[in-house]
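Discrete fold record:
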Amino acid sequence: MSIFEALMMIFWGTLYPFSIYKSYKSKSNDGKSLWFLLIALSGYMFCIIHKIFYNYDSVIFLYIFNFIIIFADSCLYLRNRIISNKKSY
């Protein structure tokens, strides 16, 4: 296990809870990109697959945790899009 990989995952993972909180409270997608979220999800999915097949270690749990957080942020993005569309009528 690389301590630097683990630290990177911890620091990167701390960004998304703030983003999720802001999206949940504001019910807005200002400053967000669905494409960015989907690309990040894909990247984490490929990292998880790599960890499973080629380099399994405990950092995989940080990748899984970050994947779940970004998935939740993506769901909030879709929820906020629905809310925004209802307001525009």
The longest helix spans residues 60-87.
